[in-house]
Amino acid sequence: MFVNGKWIGAESGETREIINPFNQETVAIVPEAGREDTQKAIQAARAAFDNGEWPHTPATERGKKLFEVAALIEQNNEELAKLETLDTGKTLVESRADMEDIAGVFRYYAGLADKDGGETIDPPMPDATSQVVREPVGVCGMITPWNYPLLQASWKLAPALAAGCTLVIKPSEITPLTTLKIAELMEEVGFPTGVVNVVTGPGATVGAELAESNQVDLVSFTGGIETGRKVMQAASGNMKKIALELGGKNPNIVFADGDFETTVDYAMNAVYFHAGQVCSAGARLIIEESLHDKFVDELVKRVKKIRLGNGMDESTQIGPLTSAEHRAKVEGYIQVGQEEGAKLLIGGKRPEGPEFEKGFFLEPTIFDGCDARMRIVQEETFGPILTIETFKTEEEAIALANDSVYGLAGAVWTQNMNRAQRVSRSLRMGTVWINDFHPYFPQAPWGGYKQSGIGRELGKTGLEEYTEQKHIFKNLNPQPMGWFN
Ligand SMILES: NC(=O)c1ccc[n+]([C@@H]2O[C@H](COP(=O)([O-])OP(=O)(O)OC[C@H]3O[C@@H](n4cnc5c(N)ncnc54)[C@H](O)[C@@H]3O)[C@@H](O)[C@H]2O)c1
Ligand SMILES: C[N+](C)(C)CC=O
């Protein structure tokens, strides 16, 4: 782990084996930290914030460091991508694309670091000035999930550092490798001691300590809704700021006038990309009734041909799920779907063959004949499971799509742009795609309505999350008030 500028083990000496989900081989052994290790890292970040130079370093200089990080990520793209694939099972092609995105995130916040010089207000009284400035929020605790380990970390690290914060980051205990590697790259760039700290270990101890600690000013969490609830409760002790990026159950609404070929192609990509382990996966197909039969026939034909395999193999389209525990959870949902009376059209089991024996594979699955009250429609299965519902009218499509505790993302497919606009404005979601699925980029904010989260990452808002606003009022001609004369 990287704490206070040093590479250290856990004080207890405990370690954890990191497993390749394709073959269960051990790819690394990392420290298994506990609360004491976390407290030390928080103290280092606290000292670097309260007494160190980083929060007062000119924003342009902070930006320069982030440009250097971006360059190092690009230079190390292949190594980082391989580590990500070994850790998560996602395909190498995806991991390489993630690394390009991540370099882009650092570059975006590097450029944004010195763009907000504050605001001068015209005060409603004479002989006074009024200024609003932004200052770093302080020590940040960051907790990240296993599905996009370094990407989700970069959405926190880059804006926090641009703002002048110091931090302790805890990657998912099962996928820490790229977060450790980026700490190495940051050490090479040379941030002041204690500004960046990485602690590897479980959520119940390391994560909980970050959320609870009175020495932490903000906790930024990406993960599941139930863990998010715990983080929110734990953060209330010192009223620390919170940013929560939680799950989604994202509707993909297809009207009959959408381009058939493109819509079928994207419907598959929406749900099966990264084996469905994507917060914004289009796991809920809501299709106009008149198109249903033709669309679903074609979908099933194509899903049969999806190539599962080792993420390291460039011809693989879907790798294994990231852990045995997670596969068991997704399999549980397949059973739930069958018990609820949904019609299993394809998949629903582990693939057969020697190449799949050791990996945590699951076949791409489709449930037809679903309705909005089913658990497989309402709950985030976070696996390769597509549920299908039908609608007859635009109003019905909107009502179905909004019938969810989540509000992360959704898409609408139609060639009628007036309808596309109406539907997109009616969806209670942080992101709506029209005739597309999945795009996200550093310039646009990302986050959820309803129980999909609090706050936004990316975009200008993603930087503002790591700042406090201060109003500085100056009386240019102070005179006695005489109120108590
Ligand atoms: N909205 C987004 O942008 C986004 C992006 C990626 C993933 N996600 C969500 O993440 C989830 C999948 O990731 P996961 O299974 O790693 O989530 P998770 O909630 O199980 O774990 C996330 C992180 O929280 C830690 N944690 C666990 N218990 C904790 C506790 N009591 N206190 C503090 N931290 C704790 C874990 O160790 C891990 O680092 C899905 O729900 C997915 O939708 C959301
Ligand atoms: C936010 N995103 C889409 C990169 C990953 C969600 O799991």
UniProtKB/TrEMBL annotation:
| Active-site positions on this chain | 245
Write the Enzyme Commission number(s) for this entry. 1.2.1.8
One Pfam family from the record = Aldedh
A GO molecular function assigned to this protein is: betaine-aldehyde dehydrogenase (NAD+) activity
Q: Which GO terms describe its biological process?
A: glycine betaine biosynthetic process from choline
- Ranges for domain Aldehyde dehydrogenase come to 7-472
Supply the InterPro entries for this chain: Ald_DH/histidinol_DH, Ald_DH_C, Ald_DH_CS_CYS, Ald_DH_CS_GLU, Ald_DH_N, Aldehyde_DH_dom, BADH
- Tell me which domain of life the UniProt entry assigns to the organism this sequence originates from: Bacteria
- KW Cytoplasm (keyword) present: no
Query: Is NAD among the key words of this record?
Result: yes
Q: In which pathway does it act?
A: Amine and polyamine biosynthesis; betaine biosynthesis via choline pathway; betaine from betaine aldehyde: step 1/1
Entry keywords, A to Z: NAD, Oxidoreductase
Which SUPFAM superfamilies does the record match to this protein? ALDH-like
Q: Which PANTHER family match?
A: BETAINE ALDEHYDE DEHYDROGENASE, BETAINE ALDEHYDE DEHYDROGENASE-RELATED
**To which protein family does this belong?**
Belongs to the aldehyde dehydrogenase family.
Name the chain's protein.
Betaine-aldehyde dehydrogenase
